Structures are given as C-alpha cells and as structure tokens.
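Contributing: when you submit paired examples, paste them exactly as shown. First protein:
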Amino acid sequence: MRSTKFFLAKNKVSNSTNSLRTVSVIGTGAYLPERVVTNDDLAKVVDTSDEWIYSRTGMRERRIAREDQATSDLATKAAMTALADAGISADEVDLLIVATLSPDMPFPSTACFVQDQIGAKNAYCYDLGAACSGSLYALETAKNQIACGAVETALIIGAEKMSSVIDWTDRNTCVLFGDGAGAMVLRATGAKRGVMKGAFGSDGSLANLLWTPGGGSRNPLTAENIDQKSQYLKMEGRDVYKHAVKQMTQSTLDALEKNGLTADDIKLFVAHQANARIIDAIAARLDVQDRMFKNVEKYANTSAAALLIAVDEVAKSGNIIPGDLLLLVAFGGGFTWGANIVEWTKS
C-alpha cells in the first residue's frame, strides 16, 4: 500500500509539472520624465565634465523627475502604456509587482499606490526589492505564478526616482543615475517557449559595496547620520564593475545552458544599463558585440527600471519579430544577478 501511495504521489507531481503553462509578453511600456539633464549641466553642479563622464560611463544625459512626481507616478505612466500596448484594461490584471529601491515611502507598497492610480481593482500587489535586478526578478516571479495557474495576467513594473536617493554633491555617484519606469504585461498564450528558464544568484556578503546604509531598522535616521549623508546611495565603483561583469557573463551562459541554447540562437542581448564599459565587457566576453543593445547614453542607470525601458525600446524599434529570442541579464545591489531568455511573441 505504501509503495502504491508513493507511486500515485510521484505521478501527481510529475503531471503537475508537465502541465505548466507557457507565459508570454503581451505588452510593454515605458515612461521617461520630460526634464533632460546633460553632462554639461552636471558640470555646473559638481567638479566634472562631459568628457570625464562619457569616457568612464558612456552616458551623455539622463532624465530627472519633477519634485512633485513620486516613483508611483512614473510607474503609473509606464503601466498605462503597457496595458494599452497589450490591448487590455487594468481590471484584467490579477497580479501587480513594482520593483524599486526608491519607493514612495517605507509602506504601504508603491504597487498599492499604482493599483489605485490605474484602477487595477482585481489585482493583488506588492513591491519587490532586488535593486537593479528587480525587474528581472519580478519577471521570474510573475512567470511562475502564471505558469502554475495561480493568476492569469500579471503587470510588472520597474520604476525609480533615483534623483531622490543620491547625493548630488558626490560626483562619483550623482552622474550615474536617472529616473524612469518600464512595464511589461504577461499572460499564458500557448506559445512554444515564451519566458524560458532563468538563472539567478545572490551574494549578501558583498552588500556593503553597493547600498544605502541609513534609514532602515539597523541604522535609523537621526540628525547625526543625516549630516553624514547615510541616507544616500554608496558605491565602490571598481568592485561593482568587476562583480557585475563576472556575474552577468556567467548567468548569461547558465541561462543558455539551461535552455539548450547557444549565443548564436539569440537575436538580441539586453543587459542592465548601468555603464557602457560594463556592457561592452560582457559583450566582448560573449563575442556578441553586434547584438548587444545599449541606451545608457540617453538615460543613464535607472536601476530596476532600466531593463524594462530597454525592452520597450527594442519592442517599439521593429527590430524583433515573433519567434526571435531576447536574452535579458541584470546585476544589482545585494549583490543580486540573473538572466532569462524570452521568446518574442508579440507582432
């Protein structure tokens, strides 16, 4: 009797696994604030120059949100664009995830504010914190919930008001970041491959290389540490560069192997837009320089928003068609990193 029960249980798990649904991207959207801040503009504020910034980062300009705009406002605009692109209404959304490191406030979640603003009354909502890897982690999370049948439609958003969490007197960090939001709508469509198997990792032992040390329960803000600017992003640039190149390269290779693919099968590689030198180093290691997308020159590093902004730009460019494979890869504070491959299905 015991062996029969085990056989039935084993078959039940196997059948459940085999019945997972294929999940596809059915819509994308993005929002960039209207205000453009160039390298020359920054040179009027801190000791820097266009040549210094561009030679080290590949950035020429970035977008900066208005003072009266919060992260949820940026996210809402991107979400509405993505929903329109998908051809669905907000009340069809079952799951809403906002990836961000610059939330409107500690709680409630920024996702709840977005839900209210777009009218996604049937969705359950939460924020996801994985820094610059956040939108890729959100993609993986939403994919799995749709695949197993827990939800039908998910809206994921990467949104950041980085201008509110950086020290504008620190030339080593303030020149690197911009504001913006990207969004993606996911649904099971019966596609052949859809969003495929991902490869992810983290290393918390290196958290102090890229973090905001003040403002949480470990180091609450006081008059003393506000003066020390502990509420702003801190980064050890050289160390971050080294780990970012290593982990994004390796997770790309891991994702390809998991799916039985090679780099030659990928139409376009879309990496987190942190720094042109990082992106170029990864492309060289993979020998895919001709297929590595970059828009960091226009928007700088928009953290969790960057990957989804890039995907929307690719989608709107007309350079991909149904059946093409996109490889998405990201790296962020934590450290966190990952890669995933998406079969493009939207015409």
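Second protein:
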Amino acid sequence: MITNLNNAKAGDLVEVSGMVHNVRVTKWGGFIILRKSRGLLQTVVSNDQCQIYNEQGETVALNDLCREMAVTITGTVGEAKIKDPAAFYKDIEISVSEVRVLSRPSTTEVVDMNALKFGDEETLLRYKFDNRQVTLRNPRDMAILKVASVVSKAFADYLTEQGFTQIYTPKIVSEGAEGGANVFKMDYFGKQVYLAQSPQFYKQIGVGVYERVFEIAPAYRAEKQNTSRHLNEYISLDVEMGFIKGQEDVMHLEAELLRAIISRVATVCEHELNLLGATLPVLPAEVPIWRLSKVHEILFENNLCEQDHRGEDDLAPEEERAICKYALEKFGSDFVFVTHFPSEHRAFYAMDDPEDPTLTLSFDLLMRGLEITSGGQRIHKEEDYRRKMIHRGMNPENFRFYLDTFRNGMPPHGGFAIGLERITACFLGINNVKECSMFPRDINRVAP
C-alpha cells in the first residue's frame, strides 16, 4: 500500500488522507475532490465498487459526505488529465474502493470560497480576513503562502551557504531602532518598553560576533496607514555583513540572494505560479543603480510623472512605479537600486557619504513599482554615532548598550531588510500585501 502519491503510478493501490474540498454526486457515483497540502486531488467513486463508512463505522452514501470532512481514502491510481488549475495532481486520479470518515464539521454552513461573490474586492477581502482560519483553505490562498514559505526557506539556505549565521533577537526592546513615533508601547512589569521595529541593533551586534548574520522574524510598525502596501506586523528578512568595502558589496549580495530565491521559487512552486497566473520578475546580470537625485531627473526629463518631484527627499509612489517601468523598458530589469538618500531622512545609524555628508550611503531596492528593501552601509565608530545622535537631539545614554558595541570595536559593515509579504506580493502580482500574510495585522484588525 502506497501512501506517498509523488511515487505512485497507474495501477498502484494507495491510501491517502485529506480534507473533502468538494463532492459531486452523479447517478453512477460521483467525485470526491480531496484537498492536500499543495492542492487538489480528484477521486472517482462508483456506487457498486466503493464502501463509505462514517465515524461510527456505519455504511453511508456518497451524498452523506460534505465539504471539510477529514477522510482516508483507499483506491487504485489511474491516469487522468485534470484541467482544474487548483489540482496539484493533474495526471492521476484515484478510483476509490473505500472511504472512512475521520471527522466532520459541526456546522452545516461550511464556508465555501468557490461560491463567494462580492461586488468589490474590498468586501471580498474583508470577508476572507474575518474568516481567515477557514478561507486559508482556498487553493489560491494556500498557493500564496506556500510561495512565501519557499521564499523564506531559500533566503535562509542561500545565506547559510554564504557563511551567514542565523540569529534570534528580542522583540521586546527598550528603544526603537528606527526612532520616531511609529513604535508600539507596552507595559513591562511597570516599565515602558516597545515592540521592535526591526532587529537592527542586535544584528549589528551579531556582526561583531559572527561577521555575517541573518534573521527571519516579525517586526512591528505603529503606522496609522490602512493601505494595500502596509502591515503593522510583518515578517522581516534581515541581513547584516561585516568587512564590507562599501554599500556596493551589500547591493551585490542582495542581487545574488534574490537571484537564488527566484530560481528556487521557479523550481519548487511551478504549480502555485500556474494556479495564480504569476510570472516571476526579471533580474538581469546588471541591475540599474541610480542616485535618488538622478531618478528624479530621469522621470522629469522623460515626462513620466504627473508632478515634478525634483528636490524631494524620497520617492513618491508614482515615482516608484514609473522608474520601475522605465528600467524594464530600457534595461530589461524588474529591479532598480536607488541610492544616496538625504541623511536627515534616514535612520541615525546610516553612514553619511564622506563626499557629501548631507547624503547617506544607503539604498532602496524597488521591484515592479514597490519598495521591497531598505539597506546600506552603517556607522561603525562610536564617536560618529554620538555626534549624529546629539545633532538629532537624541540622548546617547539611552542607547548605552548599543554604543558599547562600537566602543569595543566593530568592522565596517552594512545590511538590508526585505519584507516577506511585500516581496511575495511582487513576485505573484498580488495587489494587497495583506493577502500574503497568514493572519494580517493592520490598524483595524487583531483577530482572528
């Protein structure tokens, strides 16, 4: 008896368990569509060749089965050509000889994602998130999170192969790494603390230990933005590396990392990509790298934006979309590195450009019109930190443990962070990053 369908061939006797995704009854029998971890499996039931038993071991009819029952099916593998894009097993089906019901839902009104019809996407998404524990079972939502899982695993595997050490840092912190007001405050045994905006301080400390570190963990931003591109809790893929010669080393690492991730997703997630109708991004050997001021000029000179953004301290959303479109048309790249952001609008740990201290050796990476990364070279000398903190009105004593790291010596280093939900959304052409989170958290949602 075979239990692994990946090794099954026509004529094999198999036993397979799963959830009933759908039941179709005909005069001669019907079909049980079984949901497995990667997608759907079609099984065929003939009235005179199959026995169906409920939890009590009593014989029942096919129409006594319902969606979301847990069942074990025994049958024979047959060749098939399944057209349903949600079917993971497209070239086989099971001719069923026995069905045993393991459990059944307690409600007769099981959520049926296939039957949902709403007039607008916002209403549909609200319903999906309100019933997320069940609507995640929809093959499309399963596929999105499967891709996110593979992205995360490929991220870790590549960096480990490159000599990076995975670390695990606190999410309850005494100070926000990014500064500003967008931190979640909480009481910690009578003391005010915060949920970590990023592991920035700790991954820099890690560089002094292991030289190259990475982390995959939640990050929290108390931003009162309810948009399709923001989450208040998200998964941050963080990297920090020592002994760099400049931010170019960091950008090169990220490009090679993304190349490895794209390759892994293409290999492992062919089914999910086909189901979602997704095309992976193009990452050429040479990714365009432009200064922020140059991006403003390119867009203005080519009349690619409605407004003139020259002189602004950041990229407007319309600029992100326009420069990515320009890069794809001119250089065949879905990616653009934008560098040298103003010092006053970057985190205090960003290294200032020695040639122009008003700018930083920092970058954003844009993909398909959306920022997926912020990174750059960091300050690595204590006196430079103190000078910049005082200039910004920060009290260095509040960051004593952090500054002690540099007082005891640190190499030149830099890093970046990728939002897992954002990069997944960009890979798959998903309009709302919340769909790429298992249980999204925004300004209106803390349940389920």
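If you have annotations for the second protein, write them as plain sentences, like these:
The chain has a mean pLDDT of 95.
The two ends are 40 Å apart (CA to CA).
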